[in-house]
Amino acid sequence: MNEIAKPKRPHGPGVFVAVLAVSLVLGGLAGLGSAFLGDQPGPVGVALTAAMISAAMAAGLAGCVWWWRGIDEAAREAHKWAWWWGGTSGMAVGAVLLLTLMMRAQDVPVPSGFGSRAADIFVSGMMSILLFQLAGYTLAWAGWWLKHR
């Protein structure tokens, strides 16, 4: 027999604080593990580092799935809309900035904080694009809620 589904009860603030604390601890452990295991030379070090980072990402993804299942349809729609429009816009703005800096490096030197090795500059560029995406997402998310309140 079909039972009537109970409405979802949103997670309370205490749950979110606990999840944040667990996430910080797991991220710290993954970072420590990667730092210690990453010193191993050759393919073993690469495999151990990849395994630690993969485990951290898997735990983060599991946390995201848990969180997603605990929010209502309006919150889901806000996040989907914000990621699509805000994240995409932020990525476009960041890409324009980074590509301009890289194509005109002789006229506008790359900031020293980006590093001097190709790998450092690559990681700095990736992180910059991610920050632009998060900024765009945050603005779009806030705009969505302001518009729909």
Task: Give keywords.
single chain, 149 residues, mainly alpha, 4 helices, 77% helix, 0% strand, flat
- Got a strand count? 0
Overall morphology = flat
Helix content range of the residues, please? over 70%
Major pleated sheet: none
N-C termini distance: 38 Å
Mean pLDDT: 82
Low-confidence stretches: none
SSE string, helix = H, strand = E?
A: HHHH
Number of helices: 4
What structural category do the secondary elements indicate?
Answer: mainly alpha
Roughly what fraction of the amino acids lie in strands? under 5%
Report on this structure:
With 149 residues, the chain is mainly α. Helices cover 77% and strands 0% of the residues. The chain has 4 helices and no strands. Helix 1 packs antiparallel against helix 2 and helix 3 packs antiparallel against helix 4. The chain is flat, with a radius of gyration of 20 Å. The chain starts with 12 loop residues before the first helix and ends with a helix.
How would you concisely characterize the structure shown here?
Helices cover 77% and strands 0% of the residues.
Secondary structure blueprint with pairings:
Blueprint: H1 13-37, H2 42-69, H3 73-103, H4 118-147
Helix pairs in contact: 1-2, 3-4
